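Q: Please design a sequence for this.
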């Protein structure tokens, strides 16, 4: 094939491909961002930024359709103008190395462009879109409160939401001393936090409720100097508010833990919906995540839950050994210099994974006693019928919050006695060294030695399987998507020459079907790979292999079509 003919056909292909790609990307960009733009309340400059940053992603997904359309229309026009007949008369074959050479070269270029875009350009541009949205998150909260009187925000590293209910909201002017912080004033506000339940890990259980007449929410996004890896922080001050704990059972007068006044909420980290999505990770991040799965926020959260549970269980066992090994008492020393000494009764304590209970009766001679001593202050003695000790480890701070619940008790001071039905002593102690070392356990150590009966282990195994499947399917889908661009280009070449039509509408109708089949099967295969049930049973079958088959099925279909068309062209 001569250089003149190659250049003539190749530049026609590039021109039509560029126009088709730009038009399709523009339609997809405006269609995909229309609703988010109206809901976020972005100004004109931010709208322009989002359109620019979203363009690479939409352009990439338009590549196979645009390549198929371009080859169909260009070669169809050549065939309808009898230029294909003239080329054959000149002794040039209709094979991919003959007249199809320009289409083959363009297909290779589009495939390389697709891989580069999906692997590097789209992830970077998508994070810019997120930064633009986060820069206006205060207005987003105001809009949601105005429309629905509630807004849900996801915590970092987990699946549990924070729901803010309010009668009205307004955006306050920024504080010059905190330029990166957005301030939202809320009226008639309540904040509900949730934790994951035990039923297959999918049930969300109400954790705590904060109620206030007025509140101010402070939302701080990381600066560009801090980088995109830093989370968005949310904190709030509640005026004339109160807090209800996760459980009101047996708390009596301690049910409401915050009285009327100013109360603080947070700070908490808000989860990024994009950074944990494998579709928006570059190739280096995907490979690193596949080799080191514990680096993901979701896996981190699962490991933290297991670590906290193990630290809780081991610390309670340590306290239990202090009683049963002959020490006879349990001593706690707080950072503030207060020392608590628990003297049990004659009955054996009951140890569980979450508490130690000292049962008893109302007779004081067999009561449980708690002595509180402070430097330069008289001692306080608590005498209770029964006592329950709970602990809540904080692996980040290397401290343990201890809660001692006393039932049917009496507080005795130097010159007073105050009977109580039920109340708690809450304090914090330093974490012992042997408990601190539990934090170094890895996901592999839990999966190798733990049984599937543990709900947290099953959640960890499920998250690990889902994450690995997501990473592997994303790597396969990117390669499959790039190859589809090449194969669809050859399909367009065969369709154009055979149908001999340069009509745009006919070319689009003919070309869009194979492209959509390939794209739909790739997306469907990814969903199959990631469709891991909430609770992995013993008979669990990993959907990864089936999903990968579906991802490549689209390419197999269009490749078969391309081979059929090219073979038929050679026989004509």
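A: Design:
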């Amino acid at each position: 094939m001569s250089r003149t003919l190659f250049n003539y056909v190749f530049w026609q292909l590039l021109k039509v491909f560029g126009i088709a790609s730009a038009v399709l990307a523009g339609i997809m960009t405006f269609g995909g961002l229309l609703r988010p733009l109206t809901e976020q309340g972005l100004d004109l400059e931010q709208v322009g930024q989002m359109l620019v940053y979203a363009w690479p992603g939409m352009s990439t997904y338009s590549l196979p359709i645009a390549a198929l359309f371009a080859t169909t229309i260009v070669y169809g026009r050549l065939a309808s103008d009898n230029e294909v007949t003239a080329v054959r008369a000149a002794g040039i074959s209709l094979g991919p190395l003959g007249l199809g050479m320009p289409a083959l070269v363009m297909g290779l270029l589009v495939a390389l462009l697709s891989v580069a875009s999906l692997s590097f350009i789209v992830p970077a541009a998508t994070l810019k879109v997120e930064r633009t949205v986060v820069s206006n998150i205060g207005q987003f909260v105001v809009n949601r409160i105005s429309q629905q009187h509630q807004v849900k925000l996801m915590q970092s590293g987990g699946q549990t939401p924070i729901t803010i209910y309010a009668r009205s909201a307004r955006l306050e002017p920024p504080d010059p001393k905190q330029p990166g912080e957005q301030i939202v004033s809320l009226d008639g506000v309540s904040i509900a936090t949730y934790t994951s339940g035990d039923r297959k890990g999918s049930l969300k259980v109400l954790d705590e409720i904060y109620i206030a007449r007025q509140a101010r929410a402070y939302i701080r996004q990381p600066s560009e100097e801090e980088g995109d890896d830093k989370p968005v922080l949310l904190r709030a001050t509640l005026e004339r508010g109160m807090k209800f704990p996760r459980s009101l059972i047996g708390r009596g007068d301690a049910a409401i833990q915050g009285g009327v006044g100013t109360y603080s909420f947070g700070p908490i980290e808000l989860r990024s919906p994009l950074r944990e999505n494998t579709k928006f990770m570059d190739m280096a991040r995907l490979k690193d995540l596949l080799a080191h799965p514990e680096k993901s926020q979701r896996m981190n959260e699962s490991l933290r839950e297991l670590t906290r549970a193990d630290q809780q269980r081991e610390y309670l066992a340590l306290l239990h050994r202090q009683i049963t090994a002959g020490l006879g008492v349990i001593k706690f020393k707080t950072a503030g210099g207060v020392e608590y000494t628990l003297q049990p009764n004659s009955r054996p304590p009951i140890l569980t994974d979450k508490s130690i209970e000292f049962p008893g009766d109302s007779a004081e001679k067999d009561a449980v006693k708690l002595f509180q001593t402070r430097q330069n202050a008289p001692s306080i003695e608590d005498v209770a019928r029964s006592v329950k000790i709970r602990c809540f480890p904080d692996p980040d701070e290397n401290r343990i919050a201890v809660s001692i619940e006393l039932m049917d008790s009496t507080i005795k001071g130097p010159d007073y006695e105050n009977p109580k039905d039920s109340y708690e002593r809450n304090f914090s102690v330093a974490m012992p060294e042997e408990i601190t070392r539990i934090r170094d356990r890895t996901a592999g150590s839990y999966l190798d030695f733990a049984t599937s009966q543990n709900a947290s282990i099953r959640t960890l195994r499920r998250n690990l399987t889902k994450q690995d499947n997501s990473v592997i399917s994303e790597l396969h889908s990117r390669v499959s998507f790039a190859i589809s661009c090449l194969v669809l280009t050859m399909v367009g070449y065969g369709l154009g020459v055979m149908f001999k039509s340069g009509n745009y509408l006919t070319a689009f109708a003919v070309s869009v079907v194979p492209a959509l089949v390939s794209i739909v099967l790739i997306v469907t295969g990814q969903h199959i790979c990631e469709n891991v049930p909430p609770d992995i049973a013993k008979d669990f079958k990993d959907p990864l292999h089936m999903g990968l088959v579906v991802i490549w099925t689209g390419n197999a279909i269009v490749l078969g079509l391309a081979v059929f068309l090219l073979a038929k062209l050679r026989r004509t």
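Q: Thanks. Anything notable?
A: Residues 3-134+463-571 form one domain. Confidence is low (pLDDT under 50) at residues 198-202, 246-260.
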